[in-house]
Q: What sequence folds into this?
């Protein structure tokens, strides 16, 4: 076995998010465009032969066994029947609860990484099905491609979007996703559109149906959105709290980010077509001759 391996867990942005209905199970039917970006957590894997799953740097206030990273490792261990274990060390950069998919991406990186380290040979489809048990956003990170998504976000079709530079702002507050989706004023009946229309329409078709409710419930998010809107069309990702705007060049994005950083935590990230997780894992696999 390898001594250790460090893999990225990238963030995503919802370039658009339409809510087109509410299902009988209480979940909402969505249409969204997921874009992978080069803003990442990093997870270091150290194999164990004793079968133990250990997370070195547990999140404050979250029980070790309830952590999504640990749950992902145990789910794969139980599914595969392997007797191997793992020690996981997470270097966090993505803000928790920011709408960037950090927890789901961490879980996906664990599934994909352990499939390689434990030599399980499972397909990405099988890993994505397992990941769906952990969260609706996990499959897009498992497949690792910018995608059009429907259902609760698990019905994925790979697409190629533009790859601009993004300014991402976190207004410094937490958003309750259940509260947003339970809000009686939330738009739940957007007219479904085709993937082709969404891609051809671009920004004219792209909006986030959660945004109006979130802005009303969380004035700091409304303030940040209004501020960023001065410089470029801006949008909430997921239910927030993060928001973003796209710029054609890194220089233009960095100029706005310098202004934003005087008031809020701010990052500049580049849009990607494929996940750095798969890029890095492919490199390691080639280097090892596997």
A:
């Amino acid at each position: 076995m390898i001594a250790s391996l460090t893999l990225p867990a990238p963030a995503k942005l919802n370039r658009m998010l339409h809510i087109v209905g509410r299902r009988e199970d209480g979940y909402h039917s969505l249409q969204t465009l997921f874009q992978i970006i080069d803003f990442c957590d990093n997870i270091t894997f150290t194999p164990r032969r004793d079968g133990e799953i250990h997370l070195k740097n547990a999140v404050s206030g979250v029980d070790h066994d309830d952590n999504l990273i640990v749950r992902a490792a145990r789910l794969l261990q139980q599914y595969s029947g392997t007797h191997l274990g793992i020690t996981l060390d997470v270097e966090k950069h993505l803000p928790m609860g920011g709408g960037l998919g950090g927890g789901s991406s961490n879980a996906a990186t664990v599934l994909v990484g352990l499939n390689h380290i434990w030599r399980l040979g499972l397909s990405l489809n099988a890993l994505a099905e397992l990941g769906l048990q952990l969260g609706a956003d996990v499959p897009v990170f498992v497949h690792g491609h910018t995608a059009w998504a429907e259902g609760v976000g698990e019905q994925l079709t790979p697409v190629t979007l533009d790859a601009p530079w993004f300014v991402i702002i976190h207004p410094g507050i937490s958003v309750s996703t259940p509260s947003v989706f339970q809000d009686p004023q939330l738009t739940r009946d957007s007219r479904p559109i085709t993937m082709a229309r969404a891609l051809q329409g671009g920004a004219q078709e792209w909006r986030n149906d959660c945004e109006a409710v979130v802005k009303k419930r969380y004035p700091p998010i409304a303030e940040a959105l209004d501020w960023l809107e001065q410089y470029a069309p801006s949008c909430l990702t997921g239910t927030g709290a993060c928001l973003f705007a796209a710029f054609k060049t890194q220089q233009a994005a960095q100029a706005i980010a310098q202004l934003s950083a005087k008031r809020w935590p701010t990052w500049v990230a580049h849009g990607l077509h494929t996940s750095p997780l798969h890029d890095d894992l492919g490199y390691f696999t080639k280097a090892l001759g596997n």
Residues 79 and 174 are 34 Å apart (CA to CA). The radius of gyration is 19 Å. The chain has a mean pLDDT of 93. The longest helix spans residues 102-117.
